[in-house]
Input
Amino acid sequence: MNDRHYAPHTDDEIREMLSETGIERIEDLFVTIPEELRARVFNVPPGMSEFETFERMKRIASDNSKEMLYFIGGGFYDHLIPAVVDHLAARSEFYTSYTPYQPECSQGTLQALFEYQTAICRLTGLDVSNASLYDGATACAEAALMAIRVTGRKKIIADGCLSPFSRMTVRSYLSNLDVELLELPPLDGLLNLEELERCLDGETAALIVQNPNFFGLIEDIAAIAEKVHAAGALLVASVYPLSLGILKSPGECGVDIAVGDGQSLGNPLGFGGPSFGFIAARKAFIRNLPGRIVGETADREGKRGFVLTLQAREQHIKREKATSNICSNQGLCALRALIFLSSIGKEGIARLASMNRDKAFHARELLSRIPGVTALESGQIFNEFTIALPVSADLVAASLLNRGIAAGLPLGRYYEGSENCMVVTVTEKRSRKEIELLALAIGEALQ
Amino acid sequence: MKLIYEKSVKGRCGVELPSSDVPKAPSLPGNLLRESAPDLPEISELDLVRHFTGLSRLNFSVDGNFYPLGSCTMKYNAKILENVAALFSTFHPVTALLPDGEKFCQGNLGLLYDLSQLLADITGMDEMTTTPMAGAHGELTGILMISAYHRKKGNRKRYVVVSDSSHGTNPASAAMAGYGIITVPTAPYGDMDMDLFRKAMNEDVAAVMMTCPNTLGLFNPHIREIADIAHSFDALMYYDGANLNAIMGKVRPGDIGFDVVHLNLHKTFGAPHGGGGPGAGPVGVKSELVPFLPLPRIVMNDEGEFEVQSENLESIGRVANFFGNFGVMVKAYAYITMLGREGLIKASELAVLNANYLKEKLKKYYELPYDLPCMHEFVFSASRQAANGVHAIDIAKFLIDRNFHPPTVYFPLVVREAIMIEPTESESKATLDAFVVAMAEAARIAERDPQALRDAPVSTPVGRLDETKCAREQKVCFTG
Output
């Protein structure tokens, strides 16, 4: 029975269809494939029923550890997700639909994406947003390419406090292009303004910074923007969208292109995906945006409707001259973000952001009291902070993992000389008790 | 329907947030602080639910409608896949990057490893990466690996060869990776013109990108010869896997000369399209390209445990944050597990049967520029109807009034007034027959009352929308 999965024809129907097609056997449908090109090997195991498959998948899932208390971030964050998000995004009219190229039968997806773009513009304080990209790291790379197009310049500066995952992605995207990529070493966990001034020149297309940065510190974006603009370059900022509930928006700080990972907005951790990347920019750059954009228009009777617009930037029209090769968006994840943002609303996002900061602040105080532990306090924090331990952070992190606590992200792999440091993340989901448990466990590990 | 922002009422909130159990932190300095919270919707939970339920009803979907969309493989998305994905939704990806962190996520890592093995077997490749998040992302990853291969060998290569019937992503991906594009026209026999291809090839070509079967639904019998010519210039062969649904178990790209393959798990392997994403675009390579695979890589050690390899100087590096669209891969893995060897072969056979059946039933109504046995899809031209002032787009819009999602229109670019049809294996004979009736009706109306088709659709929430006005006004954000 296994070969019947989701193929509805009976044997009689197959015979009838073959005869209507003038073909004798199914195998004859493949006569145009020369014999010498046929597969000799195809080792996929035999199929199984839906029930057996589910049991097998449960067994695989049970090979992951069940309970883990997360004090790690690094781009993905353990935030609450209101129940409405799962329920509404699970409507199959959303998740089994296709890219809305036919607008008359896709107004649901199109209007939702227009509302999403509006939410991203309001969060970032910028004028235009696309309908989403793959993730935060690729959004950084797309922003770098966009800045090169806009300025006609060929040098990108990536701040060393930008997530190493994003920096590596930017590096890969630029690896075969005639573009110089410069990485700026951090100073006390912050962007080094003096060094930046030395690196900025008439060839610089953009600086990419992260806020809050990888160490958890909040940068003075407005001051950075001033220096970048003085060199005629663009400022790209990778931001943590939930932090924008309380932090000054990129638009207000002079950022030209804001990007980031949208996971914190209603998307589960899911071992890293799917989530989505966002990109927003000043209006003047709209024709240089990558990916899909939804716009408002009207039908012949003047009724409001939404369509994919400015498609003459995209690969299916422009081929090699497109602004990007991207041909999809992470539509369903962007929809989840819109439902999430609509559910928590204007006041909710401010409260949620404050609560993240309060918890992280409290945790930093508790951890700083542990003998031998110091916190990096060269700047303000949102919900992450860096601590220095008296021993290798790898050892402490590994020992706490065995107690079911992901205590932080050790920095030794990513920053030379930081072997004793780790970044600790505290979201609104961590209770006071759990924070105390973390402090206790780190203290015990150090004894 | 009103926008959610137009339903917003100041002071309303859709969810009760937990209260904080820690002391308040000292406030941020004013220069970092936002003056007022971002203007997000303020709406009650029930109104929120009604809003998005209302929006969902304005959509066509596979669950509600037949989508004969050429090159998109809109097959049925089994419900069990959603249940399966939910089993894996709460795990933090950074855990796997912590010291000794792998042992806490052997299930996830093992699933990715096993999926890679299955996909490598299906495509005849030596190793796979599951990181790329979509087909186009896979293409870029593949081309970056090809460029790393040539750099290592000291080859100076500047061009990538594509066919004029290729997906737009092929030239766009190659250009994004720094290559110039050479486009080879399609011959009257429907495949890339062999003479022109030979002329196009030279020492500067880094890769040849092919879709096979191509976007006309034709299997290129010269593929081995094309690969031999490419390889004689040390150009690598790239397989765009968008059309793999035609040939599972019949042909393996790795056996016929391809060096790099990308797949679209949301097409061939049953994961839903999500209204335009997320998808997943794993990439397979032959052994000579294995050193360049992106990071992180999942490998099995001698004890049979799975490890994450985050460093390798030859690798092209990262192409995304973590492990790709993991949730999509869980669905594809479950799909392959359920169907198994015989099920996958049967899926391809019935996809090809359904396409040939529709082609034969419909060819008396529409021009068939390449009247050859097709694979899983085929392309009509609305040229007969165009003589009467009815265009492919008009037929598409009429089909919406008959509750069918339109086929792909105006692609591939090599066919004038193209109507590209891919029924997939999921659809029953009854559905296909109903579609034939609607297509025949469109052809009849095109002769008798062309204006009626130009006025379609009439049954949708909005009529045909003014795209020029939209591009001119550029209202991409609600400012009210």
Q: What stands out?
A: Chain A has three domains: 12-54, 69-78+347-446, 83-339. The first strand of chain A starts at residue 69 and ends at 70. The radius of gyration of chain A is 25 Å.
